[in-house]
Amino acid sequence: MKIRYIDLFSGVGGFRYSFEQSCKKAKIESQCVGFSEIDKYSKITYKSNFELEESELDLGDITKIKPSKLPSFDFLFAGFPCQPFSLMGKKKGFADTRGTMFFYIEKIIKEKKPKFFLLENVRGLFTHDSGRTYTEIIKILEKKLKYHTKSWVLDSKEYGVPQTRRRLYILGFLDPEIKSKVSKPKEVNNPKNPTTWHVLEKEVDDRYYLSKKILKTILSNGSGKFKSKSEINKIIARPLTATMHKMHRACQDNYFSDSFIGGKFDDSKKRIIPSKKGVNRIRRITPKEAFKLQGYPDYFVSNAKKNGVSNTQLYRQAGNSITINVVESIFNEVIKNIN
């Protein structure tokens, strides 16, 4: 058995990695027929971490794809642009040109009729325009394209990574019987990395530490009308953002002190006992740690760096990515019911 798939809005390959891991566990062969991504740095990271077959298509800009020219495939996945629906953005939805990207997915699904699809977006899509945007999407998928769908808002911290990250996932099936068998993925009770302390490296380059000058801004509780408590050393990280390379206040990004990183984990009380040794400096997370908070293996970042991807681009990529653990859990649930 071989499952052929297409990877749209591929980013650095989070869907692909998750799907390949699920297929390996189920001892099923998988094959990517093509991937679509317009960011050149994300494509470098993607190509640095996957062995692309000769027949695999680099589809580039999704708006330039002719669905009729695509090879056949069983599974489609796409984390289409989230900014038009984000709670942090202007929430223009389909009025934003990025919001219309969904309709290119629709055209491909309509033409190729894959057996399954998995779409991902911010949870704001679920409530955008009082729920009308989500309702319209489901109407297109079910009434127009004749798929049977299931939707969940899943939080990454419930699936083995210490990061609060709520995302909407929409699964589509041609076969209603398979839909009836697929359940919401079970949460992970004993994660490998239960807290940020388990993810953080003990020693990093000095460039990640905050200077005294910038420290005052990072730790301030806002200015003017904007007030928010700035906290560091959170054992469950705040949602990673594509703009974290710019560094925001500690009420928006993730920062940690030497006393936290060098401390000990009290398993009985699920807390960190701070270290009292040395100077208690404060630092930002590294790109490697950011990717680990999304569930990626360490080599993902090192492979990208070997091919010239900068820290700035890696931060953006991690912030834009899906969480591997969550998506793999969804794929596991689907694959066990089609195997």
Folded structure, characterized:
This protein has 339 residues and is of the alpha/beta class. It folds into 2 domains: 2-190 and 323-336, Vaccinia Virus protein VP39 (Rossmann fold), CATH 3.40.50; 196-319, DNA Methylase, subunit A, domain 2 (DNA Methylase, Chain A, domain 2, Alpha-Beta Complex). Helices cover 32% and strands 17% of the residues. The strands form 4 sheets. A 7-stranded mixed beta sheet has the order 3-2-1-4-5-7-6, with helices on both faces. A two-stranded antiparallel sheet has the order 8-9. A two-stranded antiparallel sheet has the order 10-13. The longest helix is centred in the middle third of the chain and has 13 residues, at 132-144. The protein is globular, with a radius of gyration of 21 Å.
CATH topology of the largest domain: Rossmann fold
The largest β sheet comes out as:
7 strands, mixed
**How is the quaternary structure best described?**
single chain
Helix and strand pattern:
EHEHEEHEHHEEHHHEEEHEEEHHHH
The domain count comes to 2
Strand segment tally: 13
User: How much is the radius of gyration in Å?
Assistant: 21 Å
Structural class: alpha/beta
CATH architecture of the largest domain: 3-Layer(aba) Sandwich
- Percent helix, as a range, is 25-40%
Distance between the termini: 9 Å
CATH class of the largest domain: Alpha Beta
Please give the order of strands in the largest beta sheet: 3-2-1-4-5-7-6
Average pLDDT works out at 92
Instruction: Name the CATH superfamily classification of the largest domain.
Output: Vaccinia Virus protein VP39
How would the global form be characterised? globular
Unreliable parts: none
Q: So how many helices? A: 13
| Beta-strand proportion | 15-25%
